[in-house]
Amino acid sequence: MKWVTFQLLDAGAAGERTGVLSGDVIYAMPPGVTLLDLVGGGPDGLRAAGEDVQRSPAAVVQLADVRLMAPIPRPPSIRDSLCFLDHMRNCQAALGAGRELSDTWYRIPAFYFACPATVLGPYDDAPTAPGSAWQDFELEIAAIIGSSGSDLRDLTVEEAEQAIVGYTIFNDWSARDLQQMESQLGIGQGKGKDSAVTLGPYLVTPDELEPYRRDGKLDLRVSALVNDTMIGSGSTAEMDWTFGEVISYISRGVTLRPGDVIGSGTVPTCTLVEHLSRTALESFPGWLHDGDVVTLQVQGLGETRQTVRASRPPHPLAARPNPDATAAPGRVNRAPARVPYTRGLHEVANRVWAWTLPDGGYGWSNAGLIAGDGASLLVDTLFDLALTREMLTAMKPITLSAPITDALITHSNGDHTHGNQLLDRSVRIIAAKGTADEIAHGRAPEMLAMMQTGNLGPVATPYTRDRFGHFDFSGIKVRNADQTFDHDLTVEVGGRQVNLLNLGPAHTAADSVVHVPDAGVLFAGDLLFIGCTPIVWAGPIANWVTACDTMIALDAPTVVPGHGPVTDPDGIRALRGYLVHVAEQAEAAYHKGLSWAEAAETIDLGEYATWLDAERVVVNVYQRYRELDPDTPQLQVLALLVMQAEWLAKRCS
């Protein structure tokens, strides 16, 4: 028997109704009778009520004429358990902790309390957790408690099974980044598991599922899809802890109530987080975004299908002072500046502007605008949507009469691309082919939330939170290039000639610069860092040195770097000197037999030691060693960031 709770689509109808679904017809109970009322009679009472209503319904309603709600829209309580230990093994492995579980997982079943106030129906829109960039779903089933009275306390396993009045699909919507941070408090689930729980579409009574029971467990085939693409599948028979065992444990010293919901935990593979791999982030399907459609299918229980909707940003809370933390050194970019190095828009030549964001460290990048007659070209967007909106708003007095018609993306890093989606669809985005390829195959932007919420150890955790904690990586869908070029491209912008040159690979696989000959301005992208240390993600370093020579030869008196204050060709010469210095020092260490880590540890940075983010020398030495010895193991970005943090901590101690 399938029980439903519904609302009539007729605008004149009000209130919730409940009834038995048979085919496409609902046999409705009288108004005011709820399924929560009926489950108090236990399995026998619910069966009798169902038989009665099918004989003498208060109304007969077509399924097409109703909106199905959660079978029990306001349950007395929701407990979600973890009955599938492979789910936990897969999650641990995905987050780099291995598959071995501690002994406690084998001794008691885990559960936590979810929020009854956030229950959704099977087809309702599902809000993201405010402030989360890692929204996820979890395909589960739930058992609904039916019997009432004193016999629902201190249950045996057999008594617990008999207390189940029905089953339904359960979607445990999860904010993995918030969950990851809250887990470090060690007191259980919080806002990471608080945004929504989906129940539905029906409550199916146990007798109807008996054909699927194998060795005391329900063997229901399940599938989870996002935008109709299969994410995972499996069977509920994979449970390590049965519902009877979990409910027996939950009832120790506690009287359960009719309508209490007990989730099974996630069927292995039927959630996004299990498909995450720190060593192969490019293969991850990505977290959920606004507009994604999540479909959960369970044999015998039906299907839920919901559209994800973005929530409003949360109201921020100021962090408390940590009396045990080592104070981070002050960060001031002291490099000379041709224009004031302040946050905002600066005209650096006739109708050419630079947008600068001090201090030039991770994420604090520059962009630019070149205006002609009735048209403008934008150079890069910024690290998150809020920063990009701020910049585009500041540019409006210019772009109202000279709208942005083209945008050049200098390279693939997120602090130069994450705001692309805010550009009007009429804007032609241009990039070097190598840049477009890196964007297409790169990691999802929201993965950067790992730097804000992950526990990377006592040294790296405060380091990455300090460097990346200012940015909001939620809601970003990187828009890629509409047009690509290989080596060079000339664009006319409102009667002005603008030259685009790809001088990579160097910082990344392709690195473009923008030269405005009539204004004597060069936008160098991340081929140029001023007052802060460059970082070689791709190389070879020799190619970056050659790129510096090419930029110097353009003889532009005004040079806008990707990070740091506006400079001139002497700024390019300074960066070139750094690259040569590091390459020579690393090569000398290599020939002495030092490991790359030892070389980075002992390097003498000389005059470059005062540049911000000096710890990036770890990556730069590592890349030089990889050039000298291709057998040098390839390390992931996260591992290199941890090593940077440790290098800096030693230098500051």
UniProtKB/TrEMBL annotation:
Residues 305-332 are annotated as: Disordered. Residues 364-563 form the Metallo-beta-lactamase domain. One of its GO terms (molecular function) is isomerase activity. It holds the Pfam family FAA_hydrolase. The keyword Isomerase applies. Keywords: Isomerase. InterPro entries: Fumarylacetoacetase-like_C (IPR011234), Fumarylacetoacetase_C_sf (IPR036663), Metallo-B-lactamas (IPR001279), RibonucZ/Hydroxyglut_hydro (IPR036866). PANTHER family: BLL6422 PROTEIN, FUMARYLACETOACETATE HYDROLASE. This is 2-hydroxyhepta-2,4-diene-1,7-dioate isomerase. It comes from Mycobacterium haemophilum. The lineage of its organism: Bacteria, Bacillati, Actinomycetota, Actinomycetes, Mycobacteriales.
